[in-house]
Specification:
Layout (H helix, E strand, L loop, with lengths): L1 H16 L5 H4 L9 E3 L3 H13 L4 H11 L18 H17 L2 H21 L10 H9 L12 H17 L4 H18 L4 H7 L7 H12 L2 H9 L3 H8 L10 H18 L2 H17 L21 H4 L6 H17 L3 H15 L33 H9 L8 E4 L2 E4 L5 E5 L4 E6 L7 E8 L3 E9 L9 E4 L2 E2 L8 E9 L4 E5 L4 E6 L2 E9 L2 E6 L31 E3 L2 H10 L10 E2 L13 E4 L8 E2 L2 E4 L1 H24 E5 L4 H6 L3 E10 L2 E17 L6 E8 L7 E6 L2 E7 L9 E7 L10 E7 L9 E8 L2
Parallel strand pairs: 3-7, 15-19
Antiparallel strand pairs: 1-4, 2-3, 4-5, 5-6, 6-11, 7-10, 8-9, 8-11, 12-13, 13-14, 13-19, 14-17, 14-18, 16-17, 20-28, 21-22, 22-27, 23-26, 23-28, 24-25, 24-27
Length: 792
């Protein structure tokens, strides 16, 4: 192919004229993964286990959507789970193979990576225009977009998000594994995308970017970093959603109720545009985004979101109510953002957050035995989480999970000028070839509050080593000793301790990092707290009853822990004032032979609670658990029981009857339920999302019946709609009823209307399509929630 040959020639000339790119120069002031060897500990174990999991996947099935879309014959069948997003996991898998090869030198990962690139290259050549992707019926979508019909993205399952994973996979195969074919393919795909969006004006681009598009701005900034071609930098800017960018650059938090993992990759792209393109406004936007998410919108484990959305301040209590807690993908992308900002500005606060999220969320999302990945980590007391299995679940968090556990060496160390940064306390060995230095970090942190680093050099050298003084170590308590001198003397938490001296072979840095117990309130909900020891979230196991769907199958919603909810008033609670609670926690001693495990004093517990053991949350698996605790005085506990217990019982009763439910106006639930619309729009009222239709328009969802009969449909409306709002409700085209939404228009409240469903409409059906239809010249009014339930 002539174009491919020209790209190879261009790359050769670039290599001859400037230093070759690689991971260390592409992500500046960081060490390539192959230079950081993980030593014995939980991170090395996780990485090695993950390689075994990766090699259990059927690569031909992951490649099937690409071959199919190129008009070639697939060598395997597409995976049925998340089929509408077919192709996205293949891109993640390519990234994961390259990352794990770089981290470990595993040749099986390299061979699979090269096989994938060979097959993808055939697809790109057969397409003939530079395109390579697994988006189902993608060519139809791209043709419509090229013609200016950007609204077509809503008729597909986030096509740009899907394609972004292919861009990233090809990029990573070059960055981490040095594969030049992947690099050429990446740039060819970039050229295809530039040509496509050149047909769109700014208004069309902005409308299209309201649909989730992953990190498209990031990969185009990276293409600029590779080539210096400003067309790619301009494309990165065009893929930067102004609705978020402009607010973030102005210091305005407009994230309430937005789909969280749609937003985080945008900020990753802003950071890359700033880092590579020198655009200050983009840098300010990335920093403010990080600050508001890390400090105001993240839980104690470092994760964020419930039901995949950022709750508003007034709705933060929903973390306690919902079974869909922080999503793993969000934290994967927050770590990417954190790492990028740290490369630009070596502030210790970035590494404080990175450490917390790495230990408590990312490490915890891999099952320590079978290696399955976690999607949601509920914060709800006494709930649990479920795990994927190879060749079954094809969730987005399976894709990022494939990558996560190979990147643990990425930020342990860094450098600025000729100074070495020690950011994380993880057992590892650094090989800084350019300086002729090796650093061996021996630590059992967090089981021990120490780390010992041995310097190996061929000859004496003068060097500054900067060691992070974590925020969680008290003022004056950090020790960084070399040759009898404590270099941390006078240093402050959330900073770096500078050790400037001449180093000799065998010199040792001895660190002591005392950890204390602390309680951390759920954002904006002071009655609920998490328990921390240093940066480590402590949780407690509370039983393994009804862990329904613990290992997920191919069901569309198998990533959600659907087992019964435990009443918030049956979950353990800590009954004491805050001062007494904290004093008791700090007086606890580790259990014999179980470091970082503590028996909770019985005087803190209610009489009906069993003995509880606190341990690192990342070690809790196959169990219901406590992450956040109701922690109040006896008087306050009595008030809460009086005020909330009846409401909680009604909520649980409703949950037990529910077969399926959808929240109109929220991205993921609508995608999950195969929404179709015409003349429909959405908004928010009283912190709740809604959808309506007008002038003959409609919106509809597929709801699962689980083969049951004697069902009812519950629909939530607002009780004060303007005149003339009616909605016609149909099931599989047959009318269920007509609702005059203005009938109780003077009631300033939500109202739930229940419609009995004749068994003839659901008999022998696994799914039904529920449509909300407007009349010509009329509007349906707002629908806030839809629930399919057993009649009693």
């Amino acid at each position: 192919m002539l174009k491919r040959s020209l790209i190879y020639l261009l790359l050769l000339l670039v290599c001859l004229c400037r230093p070759a790119f690689g991971q260390d120069s592409f992500y500046r002031r960081t060490f390539p993964l192959e230079r950081v060897k993980l030593l014995d500990g939980p991170f090395k174990q996780a990485c090695e286990l993950n390689i075994r999991v990766l090699l259990a996947y059927d690569v031909d099935r992951l490649l099937a959507p690409y071959l199919k879309e190129a008009g070639l014959t697939p060598k395997g069948e597409s995976f049925p789970n998340w089929l509408g997003l077919d192709g996205h996991v293949g891109g993640h898998y390519l990234s994961a193979l390259a990352i794990h090869y770089a981290a470990t030198g595993d040749t099986a990962c390299k061979q699979r990576m090269e096989y994938m690139i060979s097959e993808l290259s055939k697809c790109q050549e057969h397409n003939g225009d530079g395109y390579v992707g697994g988006v189902p019926n993608g060519k139809e979508a791209w043709a419509e977009i090229r013609s200016g019909n950007t609204a077509v993205v809503w008729q597909f399952w986030v096509p740009w998000y899907n394609l972004h994973k292919t861009y990233a996979g090809l990029r990573d195969a070059w960055i981490y594994a040095g594969n030049e074919t992947a690099k050429a393919m990446f740039l060819e795909l970039c050229d295809w995308g530039v040509e496509l969006i050149d047909h769109l004006d700014d208004q069309q681009m902005e409308a299209m970017l309201a649909n989730e598009f992953g990190g498209m701005n990031e990969v185009y900034a990276d293409a600029y970093g590779i080539t210096g071609d400003r067309r790619y930098l301009e494309a990165a800017k065009r893929f930067s959603h102004r609705e978020i960018l402009d607010c973030m650059a102005a210091g305005i938090d407009n994230l309430d109720n937005k789909h969280a993992n749609t937003q985080v990759p945008k900020a990753v792209g802003y950071q890359r545009v700033a880092e590579l393109g020198g655009e200050p406004a983009y840098g300010e936007a990335a920093k403010f985004f990080w600050q508001t998410v890390a400090y105001n919108r993240s839980l104690a484990l470092g994760g964020n979101s419930r039901r995949e959305h950022f709750p508003s301040k007034d709705d933060a209590i929903s973390y306690v109510y919902e079974r869909e807690g922080p999503e793993s993908c969000n934290t994967n992308n927050m770590l990417r953002l954190t790492a990028g900002l740290f490369r630009m500005d070596h502030e210790a606060e970035y590494m404080d957050f990175y450490e917390r999220a790495l230990y408590n969320h990312i490490l915890s999302t891999q099952h320590p035995v079978h290696g399955g990945y976690v999607y949601f980590t509920p914060a709800r007391p006494a709930h649990y989480r479920v795990y994927s299995a190879p060749n079954s679940a094809m969730w987005c968090c399976v894709g990022t999970g494939m990558e996560n556990h190979g990147k643990y060496g990425e930020m342990i160390y860094g450098y600025t000028g000729d100074s070495l940064l020690v950011n994380l306390f993880i057992a590892s060995e650094l090989n800084w070839e350019e300086q002729g230095l090796r650093l061996i970090q021996d630590t059992r942190f967090p089981d021990e509050e120490t780390s010992r680093m041995t310097v190996r050099v061929d000859k004496p050298m003068h060097l500054t080593v900067l060691v992070r003084y974590p925020r969680w170590v008290g003022a004056g308590k950090m020790q960084v000793n070399v040759g009898g001198r404590n270099y941390a003397s006078g240093a402050s938490p959330a900073s770096y301790v500078a050790i400037t001296r001449e180093w000799h072979d065998g010199d040792v840095i001895e660190m002591a990092m005392p950890m204390e117990m602390a309680v951390e309130e759920l954002p904006d909900v002071p009655d609920y707290v998490a328990i921390m020891r240093g940066p480590i979230l402590l949780g407690a196991r509370v039983g393994d009853h009804r862990l329904d769907g613990l290992i997920a199958d191919d069901h569309r919603w198998a990533h959600i822990a659907h087992g019964p909810l435990v009443s918030l008033f049956e979950a353990p609670a800590l009954i004491a004032d805050r001062e007494t609670l904290l004093k008791a926690l700090r007086a606890m001693q580790p259990m014999v032979g179980k470091p970082m495990s503590y028996t909770v004093p019985k005087f803190l517990q209610r009489e009906n609670d069993s003995s509880l053991v606190l341990e690192p949350f990342y070690r809790i698996h196959d169990s219901r658990y406590m992450m956040y605790w109701l922690a109040v005085t006896p008087e306050r506990y009595a008030e809460i029981v009086a005020e909330k217990k009846a409401e909680e019982e009604r909520r649980l009763a409703l949950d037990r009857r529910t077969i399926d439910a959808v929240t109109p106006g929220e991205q993921q639930p609508e995608v999950d339920h195969a929404m179709k619309t015409h003349q429909s729009h959405t908004g928010r009222h009283r912190d709740a999302s809604w959808r309506s239709a007008r002038d003959g328009g409609y919106f509809q969802y597929e709801l699962e019946t689980k083969g049951r009969q004697d069902l009812v449909l519950m629909v939530r409306y607002w009780g004060a709609e303007p005149e003339g709002r009616t909605v016609d409700i149909l099931i599989d085209g047959q009318r269920l009823g007509v609702e005059d939404i203005t009938g109780e228009r003077d009631e300033q409240r939500f109202r739930d209307v229940v419609y009995p469903i004749p068994n003839t409409l659901v008999k022998n059906k696994a799914y039904i399509t529920v449509r909300f239809q407007s009349a010509a010249g009329r509007e349906t009014g707002r629908v806030f929630h839809i629930r399919l339930m057993e009649s009693n």
